[in-house]
Amino acid sequence: ADHTMPSRTFIAITAALAAPAVAWQGPAPACARTASRVGASNVRAGLFDGVKDAFKNPTAPQDEDRITPIDRWLGIDKDLVTPKKVVTFVDPQMAENYHTAKLAKPMGIKFLENEGGLGGIIVDSLLPDGSASTTGASIQSGDQLVAVDSSIVLGLEFEEALGAIQSSVAEEVSLVFFRGGAQFLYGPTKPEEEWLRTEVMKA
């Protein structure tokens, strides 16, 4: 009988015998295991390096309803919210919210037209050399012009309202102002002309 070992079996045994022996040296020291875990942790953390920083430079404030969950997760939601301007209601049907100034020309008042198609004009600023500044008149930026002398200019176009001042021949022109927002003066609480004449202009 042929007792020759098949060549493949022979090669396998030879390879096994030729493989270097590795002696077991017991469990790895605690410091080595700790270092290994820290290294793995650093690798996982490295996946998110720079992610938060990439989102911490918002280009502009946003409305609160546009803030996303990831903004809140990153902790930048408060920085993204546009601060809402608080507007205090001023009743245009109360005489104490009006004031009158009697001024000689040139007055040095810069007016602007109200936005939103409301009509009427609003004080923008006072020029230093005009009578409004030199006499210490109680006129502020944001005051709404209501009347000039005996004429009510409430809601008039810019040129027409300003023309009432320019055409006045009085030595001192009487200007009546409302100190409050245009949305109140021209909204549902808009005062009647008769009330303005009897309660504010005293004519």
Radius of gyration over C-alpha positions, nearest whole angstrom:
41 Å
Contiguous low-pLDDT stretches (5 residues minimum) are 4-22
Largest sheet: spatial strand order = 1-6-4-5
Percentage of helical residues?
25-40%
Main sheet characteristics: 4 strands, antiparallel
Quote the distance from N terminus to C terminus: 141 Å
Mean pLDDT comes to 77
Pairing-aware structural class of the strands and helices? Answer: alpha+beta
Using the alpha-carbon principal axes, give the shape. elongated
Separate helix tally: 9
- Helix/strand order: HHHHHEEEHEEHEHH
Strand content is: 5-15%
Q: Please provide the count of β strands.
A: 6
How would you summarize the topology of this molecule?
Layout: H1 7-18, H2 30-46, H3 51-54, H4 69-74, H5 77-80, E1 98-103, E2 109-113, E3 121-126, H6 131-134, E4 144-148, E5 151-152, H7 158-166, E6 173-178, H8 182-185, H9 193-200
Antiparallel strand pairs: 1-6, 2-3, 4-5, 4-6
